[in-house]
Amino acid sequence: MSWNRKNLLDLNDWVPQDFEDFVKRALALKPRLVSAPKRPLDSLRGFTVANLFFENSTRTRNSFDVAERMTGAEVIDWSASGSSMSKGESLRDTVWTLCEMGVNALVVRHSATGMPHYIQKLVPHVPVFNAGDGARSHPTQGLLDVTAAVERLGSLKDKTLAIIGDVRYSRVARSDVKAFRGMGARVILSGPRTLMPTRPDALGAEYEPDPRAAAAQADILGLLRVQLERQEAGLFPSVKEYHALYGATEELLSCARPGAVVMHPAPINRGVEVASSVADGPSSLIREQVLCGVLVRMALLDICLGGGAR
Q1: In the chain, what are the domains?
Q2: Known binding site: residues?
Q3: Residue 246: other Cβ atoms inside 10 A
Q4: What are 106-147's pLDDT values in tens digits?
Q5: Which of 6, 38, 227, 260 is most buried, most CB within 10 Å of its CB?
Q6: 3-state secondary structure (DSSP) of residue 105
Q7: Which helix (H) or strand (E) holds 132?
């Protein structure tokens, strides 16, 4: 596998062959992870990776942590509340301090759009991996979502993904559109108009206001968490009505194509975006997405830092 990237800030410059090669690489690690869970790779022995999370996270933060340790790296799990930033130190000085200590890579999640790009400019010699910035991008989520879909469905060429929910405030949706289109899939967006971007076509997707009409064309239903922390109140009447109209119920799933699967980046608001019977049912890929998150982040670290692109 030929590879010349040392960072992952977004997926904007990825071409279809990049997605195809990367997904194969990630899935090839699964037998090694399952059979040798202590340390299936050792390519980052001697490396130190710092996880800088300025937003709460369970899956992304811990998935990166597991992937770093599984590839042999030492891990610094940094938090703003326990650092000198609580004493007034700037982010810039914090980043410089960590890198002068010999940190070899930074994983960054921040509520401010573009923050991983800013940090990369501060320390151009240190690889930076975007774990989510504002509502703009979440590239490893996009990669793990296509990886989970390929593992279940095979090729995504000519498949259709219907992303239903809060697209306007979702960095996951933006990265999923790029990743699934990169794998040859068509993408339809659906949800309340108040939760849609002004121009869905600018994202490279179609807009279908009726979620059942969108589902009828879909091989994959991608549900999104309602991003209450990023939006003003009053964008939909009530949680109960939202679930009835846009939630992944058994009724909505029955509208989809035969064999359709359900995805959600989590955390799930059960009874809001997804009914428990669907989240825990045979069509759900939600647990597979968690495993693929570790595989994708292991593959990313290995090929960007450890010379795994050979």
Answers
A1: 16-137+290-305 (3.40.50.1370), 139-285 (3.40.50.1370)
A2: 59-60, 87, 109, 138, 141, 171, 225, 266-267
A3: 25
A4: 999 999 999 999 999 999 999 999 999 998 999 999 999 999
A5: 260
A6: strand
A7: strand 128-133
Query: What backbone torsions phi and psi does residue 118 show, to the nearest 5 degrees?
Result: -60, -45
Give 145-197 as a 3 state SS string.
Answer: HHHHHHHHHCCCCCCEEEEECCCCCCHHHHHHHHHHHHCCCEEEEECCHHHCC
Cβ atoms within 10 Å, residue 207 = 17
User: Do 19 and 180 touch, CB atoms closer than 8 A?
Assistant: no
Question: Other C-beta atoms within 10 Å of 298: how many?
Answer: 30
Give the residue ranges of the annotated binding site for L-aspartate.
87, 171, 225
Known binding-site positions for carbamoyl phosphate: 59-60, 109, 138, 141, 266-267
β-bridge mates for residue 57, sequence order: none
**Token digits for 277?**
């019977």
For 142, 143, 216, 295, 297, the CA distances from 25, given in Å and listed in that order, are: 15, 12, 32, 9, 11
Q: Which two tokens stand for residue 64?
A: 């990166």
Tell me how far apart the 2 most distant CA atoms of the chain are, in Å: 56
Instruction: Decide if pLDDT at 295 tops 60.
Output: yes
